[in-house]
Amino acid sequence: MYLKDLDQSRMAFPKLKELLRDQMEAGVVTFNDLKSTQPNPEDLPTYGYVRDDYVFNYPIQKVFDHYKYADPNVAWGTGGLVAFGLALDKNTHEVYYPGESYPGAKVGQVFYIHCTIFGLKRICMSQEIVKVDDQGKEIVFSYIEGGMTAGIQEIKFTELGSNQTRVTHISNFKGVSPFRDKFYPFFHSLIVGKFHGNLKSSLELSEN
To answer: Quick one: pLDDT at residue 65?
Structure first.
């Protein structure tokens, strides 16, 4: 599947179209040309670090499954601070536009996420799922090459009790400039806080 064949009429955000254009100009032709920036473990000490924790009053399996199979339109939202742009699968070549059904998180899926900072600054980022560990309860994303940030984001699930789970979101990041990296933790926590808040609210609604 070629990036140029994506249906831009189904993309709500100009910054999403701009990012896709930039990726194609950088030499990305097919879905498989999209490369993650997953660092080697020994290089992680040279990356920035942010950690955010969230507690859910539900069993770990229920929380993990909710994250794994969550509708991206619900998890990321459809507008405002953060919104789901589209997702594609490098393995099956499937494309998931906003409003379409989603089969669940799988390695090789690439998400395009749109963010609006304080209603003014608009950006779009792409990140690939590089690990889904059902047994170890972990989902890992990595930023795609050519963006403003490189590195990984790990979402880890820890059982605190029979009906309580801690979700830990760890980001190891390296931006295009040290100046920009100073502001990354604040904006990152703002964006992922919205993501995890959406998932917590949707889980609570599904249980009522």
So the answer is: 98
Residue 120, Ramachandran bin (φ over 0: left; ψ between -120 and 50: alpha; else beta)? alpha
The residue behind tokens 């999403």 is 16
Q: What is the DSSP annotation of the chain?
A: -BGGGS-GGG---HHHHHHHHHHHHTT--BGGG--B-PPPGGGGGGSEEEEEEEEESS-HHHHHHHHHH--HHHHT-EETTEEEEEEEETTT--EE-TTS------TTEEEEEEEEETTTEEEEEEEEEEEEETTTTEEEEEEBTTSSEEEEEEEEEEEEETTEEEEEEEEEEEES-HHHHHHHHHHHHHHHHHHHHHHHHHHHHHH-
Q: Mind listing the pLDDT tens digit for each residue in 42-86? A: 999 999 999 999 999 999 999 999 999 999 999 999 988 999 999
* Domain assignment of residue 161, given as a range: 3-207
- Any idea what the CATH number is for the domain that residue 61 is in? 3.30.530.20
Total count of domains within the chain: 1
Give pLDDT < 70 ranges for the chain.
none
pLDDT for res 126: 98
